[in-house]
Amino acid sequence: MPELEHKMHIGDLSLFYDGFKALEDINMKVYCRRITALIGPSGCGKSSLLRCLNRMNDLVEGARVEGRIELDGEDIYAVGCDLTHLRRRVGMVFQKPNPFPMSIFDNVAYGPRLEGRKGRGDLEEIVERSLRRAALWDEVKDKLKQSALALSGGQQQRLCIARVLAVQPEVILLDEPCSALDPISTQRIEDLLAELKDSYTIVIVTHNMQQAARVSDFTAFLTIENQGEPGRLVEYGETEEIFTRPRDPRTENYITGRFG
Amino acid sequence: MEPRKDFHQQLEEMYLELLRMSNRCLELIDDTRVAFLDLDGEKAERIIAADEEIDDMRYSLEESGIELIARQAPVAVDLRTIIVIMRLAQHLERVADLCVNISKAIINLSGHASLSSWIKENMDEMFKRSARMLSCATQAFRDRDLTLAGELNEMDEKVDRINRAFLTGFDRDSEEELELVVRVVLISRFIERIADHAVDIGEHVRFLVTGSVQEGD
Fold it and tell me: Hey, is the C-beta of B78 within 8 angstroms of any chain A C-beta?
């Protein structure tokens, strides 16, 4: 692995849902201003791992982690960690676009308002900047007061990305952000991610292996050996290596579709 | 259950077709050897006619490869297999072309009464060695055998040596006419090129197995 600055460090991470061990001994670094893709079969724990990165799993009853996850060297599971602050720094975009039932403007201004930013001019600037950054501005600039629910699925997903960008995160987590989108909208999101990685550290869970191959710099392959066993990290490396000459035969079997 | 069954079946068909193509080329080389030793112009004509069949095999393999790349987005060993099969088909097609070139020279030579035993023995040796190399190269591809692929370079040196012998070995004071000498040297050079294709196939086997484009990478 190259000598790159890392943003997050996952060390000996295991995740439990009550008695069930969902992840075991995950060790990996998430590199600064790079796109890291998490791939693997259903149930391997890739979405669970993603949700550990901003403690979304805390919302699941009975969820418990062992090990460490550091953000800029600080353990996010340490006692006294400010969860609101953490989730502002590590934003999340979900599988299904989930705009709030309010106007486009208010969707993007929602986070900054919660942070106490009230000035109209200030908010207008944040909204425009975020929508531009999310490659949505030109399509919605004349209808900012319209309901976000009237947008197409692809536009809604970019709005959700704009909403995350509005609070100036450092890491963006995306959980299968394109699985409900058509190919053109998917391409827009992929182009957008390529632009955003100049400024943000991005982690994406995707079922679409070709998407991982297209957009990511690093790929982590997780799998479960047998039903009921925890997900483990099999191979982690530069995407080019993973998709041209994976080291582990389990990775090769999975990406070439020989997975049983 | 294998999720990409159809795709892997098509890949397997390409692989088997390439092995058939290689076998066909080995037959052609042997036919060319016999045609040369007997200076059999009619046999040489049949070898020239067979070239179209080999060309078709190559085009068909290339079309299959392009289709699989476009429709199946292959990665890792699957992608390498398709690329290598397409490259090998090109080499084999060139081998058949060289048999055609040799056959044309045989037709031109068929007016001559006979060849000296020195020419016959060395040429026979060269044909057999080149065919053996192509057979080993194909086997290395089939078994993904890096050791066997690595032995091709050494095998090639012996073919090169005989080829050089043809350049320098003719007795300048002998009666052998110039046209014969030129054609024999030309044929020797064509066979030496067949051996080179076998060496190249060995290189592609290395890429297939290791994924490295450059030697020692």
Answer: yes
Selected for mutation to probe chain A from B77, B78, B214 (highest A CB count within 10 Å) is: B77
Q: Does any CB of chain A come closer than 8 Å to the CB of residue B153?
A: no
Judge: B76–A213 Cβ closer than 8 Å, yes or no.
Answer: no
Give the pair of three-digit tokens for residue A210.
């070709």
- How does DSSP assign A83-147, residue by residue? HHHHHHHEEEE-SS----SSBHHHHHHHHHHHTT---HHHHHHHHHHHHHHTT-HHHHTT-TTSB
Look up the pTM and report it: 0.84
Find the CATH number of the domain harbouring A32: 3.40.50.300
Task: List, for residues B122-166, the tens digit of each pLDDT value.
Answer: 999 999 999 999 999 999 999 999 999 999 999 999 999 999 998
pLDDT, tens digit, for every residue of B180-202? 888 999 999 999 999 999 999 99
- B81 to chain A, any CB pair closer than 8 A? The answer is no
ipTM, 2 dp: 0.73
Q: How far apart are CA A139 and CA A130, in angstroms?
A: 13
Q: Does the distance separating the beta carbons of A246 and B76 come in below 8 Å? A: yes
B2-210 is classed CATH 1.20.58.220:
yes
Q: Residue A125 sits in which domain range?
A: 6-255
CB contact under 8 A, A257 and B211: no
